């Protein structure tokens, strides 16, 4: 199914966009970052194996000697780093505009003395890429989270000078101690003060032991399908418990993968908070903002959930007006031998929106494109 079928179901097949479709969850590795990955011999890296070619390895668990080279990480194609391939993907799937972002693991693994300069280089390169395709590409900037806080804040402010940057992408580790770390407050204050949204994306997942001794038999399914969503859920719950959104009531956070399991578990989280004797005795329950208020005031969700069942929780938690379409390109490509077909990550997410909003095409159109244009001010 073509994305533009959602808002123009009678259109004829065509190779260029005909409807307003915005992809806010789509990644790129710019040239400087690819050079970095290729120069490394530790994770994250791109390693060229004699029997399986170049492969992107971004997690230590993917690089164990016991794992055959053909199963380490994932093959890396030009879709990961060639901006022309991004545009070709957009044209193929009738996507008007993409808000691109550096893919995980971002700059978290770099030494503190190097990371600020690398962040500037990456952000400038991505902004330049966007400028080559006016109106079609915008971006989320990358922060040097391994640098001293002052340097992170400097980059937050500098990003405002880059024409195509519409917020920042961030992992769940923050400065290294999670997003409930008090040192993050200086960064939250800068982001709130400059009106820049955080696109929160998982990377670290859960400990391998959680998935049991047979996990390697199941490919990447357990860490990607369960580890990533739960990582996001835990990170945001820690932000809520530590009062981040009470201290920064205008801070806006876009959660990848429809918020992980946060929308579905919000009621249970809220109940556990109000029934926790320790929190009550510490005075942390009284006068706090409820999770439902935060979900509808501070949280946006992408629609990368692959089914209308998941969208039901997302819409119930945050509202259809806070939901934005995404594809997760270039991850989850068609399998070998199916390269000429549409990417399932597009067709499944498109079908989910169509199925859920089948009685409300105007809401579907807003999720597919209108919400992103309004929230991220893409027409400014």
* First-to-last CA distance: 31 Å
What share of residues are in beta strands? Answer: 5-15%
Could you give the order of the helices and strands? EHEEEHEHEHEHEHHEHHHEHEHH
The count of helical stretches stands at 13
Radius of gyration: 20 Å
**Overall mean confidence score, pLDDT:** 93
Secondary structure elements and pairings:
Layout: E1 22-28, H1 31-39, E2 45-49, E3 53-57, E4 74-75, H2 83-92, E5 97-102, H3 112-131, E6 137-142, H4 149-159, E7 165-170, H5 185-193, E8 198-200, H6 221-241, H7 244-247, E9 253-255, H8 262-274, H9 277-281, H10 291-297, E10 299-302, H11 308-318, E11 323-324, H12 344-356, H13 361-375
Parallel strand pairs: 1-5, 5-6, 6-7, 7-8, 8-9, 9-10, 10-11
Antiparallel strand pairs: 2-3, 3-4
Structure description:
The protein is an alpha/beta fold. Helix content is 39%, strand content 13%. It has 13 helices and 11 strands. It has an 8-stranded parallel sheet. The radius of gyration is 20 Å and the shape is globular. 43% of the residues are buried.
Descriptive key words:
globular, 380 residues, 39% helix, 11 strands
């Amino acid at each position: 199914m073509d994305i533009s079928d959602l808002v123009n179901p009678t259109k004829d097949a065509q190779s260029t966009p005909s409807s307003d479709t915005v992809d806010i969850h789509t990644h790129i590795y710019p040239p400087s970052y690819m050079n970095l990955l290729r120069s490394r011999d530790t994770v994250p890296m791109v390693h060229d194996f004699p029997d399986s070619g170049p492969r992107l390895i971004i997690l230590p668990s993917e690089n164990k000697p016991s794992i055959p080279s053909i199963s380490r990480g994932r093959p890396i194609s030009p879709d990961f780093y060639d901006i022309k391939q991004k545009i070709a993907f957009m044209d193929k799937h009738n996507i008007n505009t993409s808000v691109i972002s550096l893919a995980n693991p971002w700059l978290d693994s770099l030494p503190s003395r190097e990371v600020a300069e690398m962040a500037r280089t990456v952000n400038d390169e991505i902004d330049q890429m966007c400028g080559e395709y006016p109106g079609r590409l915008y971006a989320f900037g990358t922060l040097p989270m391994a640098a001293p806080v002052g340097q992170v804040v400097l980059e937050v402010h500098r990003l405002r000078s880059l024409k195509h940057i519409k917020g920042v992408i961030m992992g769940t580790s923050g400065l290294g101690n999670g997003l409930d770390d008090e040192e993050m407050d200086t960064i939250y204050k800068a982001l709130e003060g400059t009106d820049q949204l955080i696109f929160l994306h998982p990377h670290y997942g859960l400990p391998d032991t959680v998935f049991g001794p047979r996990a390697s038999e199941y490919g990447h399914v357990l860490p990607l399908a369960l580890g990533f969503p739960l990582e996001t859920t835990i990170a945001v719950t820690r932000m809520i418990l530590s009062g981040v959104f009470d201290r920064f009531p205008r801070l806006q956070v876009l959660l990848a993968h429809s918020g992980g399991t946060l929308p579905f578990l919000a009621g249970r989280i809220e109940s556990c908070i109000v029934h926790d004797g320790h929190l009550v005795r510490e005075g942390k329950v009284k006068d706090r903002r409820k999770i439902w208020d935060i979900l509808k005031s501070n949280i946006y969700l992408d629609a990368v959930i692959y089914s209308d069942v998941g969208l039901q929780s997302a819409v119930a938690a945050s509202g259809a007006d806070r939901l934005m379409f995404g594809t997760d390109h270039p991850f989850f490509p068609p399998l070998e031998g199916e390269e000429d077909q549409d990417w399932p990550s597009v067709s499944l997410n498109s079908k989910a929106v169509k199925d859920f909003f089948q009685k409300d095409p105007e809401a579907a159109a807003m999720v597919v494109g209108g919400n992103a244009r309004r929230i991220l001010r893409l027409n400014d």
